[in-house]
Amino acid sequence: MPTLLTSGLLYSLAACAEIAGCFSAWAWLRLGRTPLWLIPGGLCLSLFAILLTFSPSDHAGRAYALYGGIYIVISLLWGWAVEGMAPDGWDMTGAALCLAGALLILLAPHDRT
User: Fold this and answer.
1) CA distance 35 to 49
2) What SS3 class is residue 15?
3) What is the arithmetic mean of pLDDT over 26-54?
4) Where does the sequence pass through the membrane (predicted)?
5) What is the rounded CA–CA span in Å between residue 32 and residue 101?
6) 15-62-99-97 Cα dihedral, nearest 10 degrees
7) If you average pLDDT over residues 14-36, what whole number do you get?
């Protein structure tokens, strides 16, 4: 399952980059941080976009759909690690459903023609 492990790592890194980039704007506007937070945020968002181009999917839309499931899981982990908001049972159930959908998109025998 190298594709599964590689894809999981790729999408997890992309999610961390996207969340960090968006969090920089959140920190500036909602937490009163300096606008200088937007500089590393912009770099993180650029890294996010570049990382998604390495997706094993042949189509951008499918890559983004697959990424969405991973993004949800990483977002909940970010909230727990960075903001101290532990996910509840509903969060975990929703994340599991999304991750199952992402795995289905990745592993399904899509028509490759």
Assistant:
1) 22
2) helix
3) 96
4) 34-52, 64-81, 93-109
5) 37
6) 130
7) 96
The CA-to-CA distance between both ends of the chain, in Å, stands at 23
Considering its fold, how many domains does the chain have in total?
1
Structural domain includes residue 16? yes
59 token code pair: 């189509």
Within a domain: residue 112?
no
Residue whose structure tokens are 């996010």:
48
Reading the block at residue 66, the tokens are 């697959």
Q: Which residue range is the domain that position 29 belongs to?
A: 2-107
Mean pLDDT of the chain: 90
Would you say the pTM of this structure is higher than 0.85?
Answer: no
Under the banding of pLDDT at 50, 70 and 90, the label for residue 66 is confident
Q: Of 24, 31, 26, 69, nearest to 47 (Cα)? A: 24
Torsion of CA 21, 23, 28, 32, to 10 degrees: -160
Residue 60 lies in a domain: yes
Measured in degrees and rounded to the nearest 5, phi and psi for residue 100 equal: -60, -40
